[in-house]
Design brief:
Blueprint (H helix, E strand, L loop, with lengths): L3 H6 L12 H4 L4 E5 L11 H12 L3 E6 L12 H6 L2 H8 L4 E6 L13 H21 L6 E5 L3 H5 L13 H24 L6 E8 L3 H6 L4 H4 L8 E5 L1 H4 L4 H13 L12 E6 L4 E2 L2 E2 L3 H18 L4 E3 L27 H24 L5 H13 L3
Helix pairs in contact: 3-5, 6-8, 12-13, 13-14, 13-15
Length: about 400
Amino acid sequence: MVPLLLLAAGTATTIAAAELPEVDRFNYILGTQAIGGQYHFTDGDPLVESAEVIRAMGASSMKFDLRPKRKAYPGIHSLVELARDEPNHRRVLDMPFANFQLWAEPFASTSWKEGLSREHAELEYQEMHALVVHLLKTYSGSSKAFYLGHWEGDNLLRGSISKEADAKMTPQRVQGMIDWLNVRQRAVDDAKRDTPHQNVKVWHYTELNHPTISMREGRPTLVNEVLPHVAVDFVSYSAYDVTNVPKAEEIKAVLGYIESKLMPKPGIQGRRVFIGEYGYSVFHNGKPHHSPQEQDRLSRITIQAALEWGCPFILYWELYNNELEPDGRQRGFWLIDDKGVKQPVYETHRQYYQWARRFVSDCISRTQKPPTEAEFRQAAAEYFKSLR
């Protein structure tokens, strides 16, 4: 028997998906991701394994890579086919996560660095639009939210933070990125406007990763050259330039600076800048870098600062390490190491989710409704203060 949702994905009819229970659909803010992991521990698909581990930890968010890997996905030719027809991606999207952050890169291989051509703009638009229509129809009624974005935009735009890289920020390249992001946003907005749906959300975000050289030195990056000219819903901040040596007030200042460059979006309540990546490696350039305890301590500083500022998500990089040292050792960006050992920072997340789910359940029992975002955030910040 073919599942009703699968039938609905290929027809004009929208069939409401089952709504997540209130405790599952609450945004617990903290999360992690599964992108490019160098190991796994079961015979199953690595993405599915990762999602199951993240879910078992207690998270309500899942970030992963929805980009073309043609050798790995034979017969898959578009983002819709990847989300709908590739069984492992479909299985993860069907899992009871409330929020998905996805690197969505069309199979059409568009390019904007020499300027976005009309042909490439149309290809980008069509594939993104079709993906949004699919998500809205398939998950209508589910209470899920999908955030479609991309990897570190400053690395795409300028590369390094060296002053020599400033020269790469040509007017043509900057305008190309502006046009590219606006096309993607228009595809999302048009699909939402024209597709019947209920109780499901799709948003578009850009990710930046070098805002501090703009804030402190006035140098050109995505935040000051591109962001003021694009109507994106959200911004993801790959935040290593301020979290490598985390200081709460500096983290908040950079987040505020990014927010100051955003175009208004009256339809979105609350903060629109989230931390899409932060993390601390065990090894760096062949030398010990952070102990497991130091990983955890630094993460708590970043988490608490971002909670207090108001980030909608704070996503740790990552579940399984994805980078190797030149000698083949794991760099150690992980919650669980390559021997399967759960690190202190894993336990911090797991215990937090246990507390958070209990807090939300208790509130529902007392008041017949979940806490507000502000109530939960304040309690979460107090929770992390209590861990000092």
